[in-house]
Amino acid sequence: MKIGIIGVGNIGGTLASKLVSTGHEVRVANSKGADDVRPFAEEVGATAADAHGAVFGADLVILSIPLPAIEKLPKNLFEGVPVHVPVVDTSNYYPGMRDPQIAELDAGEVESIWVSRQLGRPVIKAFNNILAHSLAELGQPEGVVGRLAVAVAGDDADAVRLVRGIVNEVGFDPVDAGTLAESWRQQPQTPSYCCDYDAPTMRKALAAAVKGEALRLRDQLPEAIAALGANPSHDDIVAMNRSRSSRGQRRTV
Ligand SMILES: NC(=O)c1ccc[n+]([C@@H]2O[C@H](COP(=O)([O-])OP(=O)(O)OC[C@H]3O[C@@H](n4cnc5c(N)ncnc54)[C@H](OP(=O)(O)O)[C@@H]3O)[C@@H](O)[C@H]2O)c1
């Protein structure tokens, strides 16, 4: 497939490298133009592009940039990209810590619905509820017991199927998380969020989410992160996510 990836940081960069390895033709872009992204592209075997060049002619687009940066993408970015081409949104909203406040999200709008409104086209939410370290290091072949899972939510069945295939290819069990409107269940501070769960546990965690709880837990996040100390290990972060996100949710995980 021809895959365009915008954003080559922890998540987009890892996906670019893995998807080149699995035989895809990958074009990558950042905010600074093709020359700036070229060293990374050459390192992983992708092609450097600007944002328009990354999406034009792609069979799949992956947006892996900070959520507020989505507003800064060119307004005509998807002109000429057929509507059946899935656009994956990996973003998460961290107001007050990393991101500026966005009123609609603070009022409870589902994050990927907000993203799709900014883009003017539907998105598939995926790769947002797995930590960068897990994505890069903990993938396993299909069928391995305990293989970690990644939630996939979206409204178009064909697009979801294609993205589920990509999740599988890069080493994880795709778990169907419902429509985009339901994708609040995989947002930060929910039971399924970045907990290194296998597919059966991820399904239970998605079902255990209680609407509104994540917003309440979010306010306590800076304190919880501070309590981990200066250089928390991956296991410490996963343990924190598991213990925090089970609070106040339905006790089925
Ligand atoms: N890190 C994680 O563990 C993790 C896990 C799941 C989901 N996520 C989410 O996935 C997204 C990416 O996370 P990350 O950790 O990979 O971020 P990151 O390491 O900071 O990388 C962000 C990338 O986006 C590019 N970028 C920023 N603004 C842009 C713009 N306006 N146009 C085009 N490219 C732009 C950056 O390049 P330049 O600034 O050089 O342009 C960079 O390549 C975020 O929304 C994050 O919340 C992160």
Brief rundown of the structure:
This protein is α/β, with parallel strands linked by helices.
Which sequence of strands runs across the widest sheet?
3-2-1-4-5-6-7-8
Mean pLDDT: 95
The CATH level-2 architecture is identified as 3-Layer(aba) Sandwich
Could you state the oligomeric state of the chains shown? single chain
Number of strands: 8
- Ligands, deduplicated: NADP nicotinamide-adenine-dinucleotide phosphate
Q: Which consecutive residue ranges, at least 5 long each, have pLDDT under 50? A: none
- What's the SSE pattern? EHEHEHEEHHEHEHEHHHH
Q: Main β-sheet: number of strands, strand sense, barrel status?
A: 8 strands, mixed
Strand fraction equals: 5-15%
Tally of helical runs: 11
Helix share of residues? 25-40%
* Total number of distinct structural domains: 1
CA distance, first residue to last residue: 37 Å
Which overall shape is indicated by the principal axes computed on the Cα atoms?
globular
CATH fold description: Rossmann fold
Q: What is the CA-atom radius of gyration, in angstroms? A: 17 Å
| CATH class identity | Alpha Beta
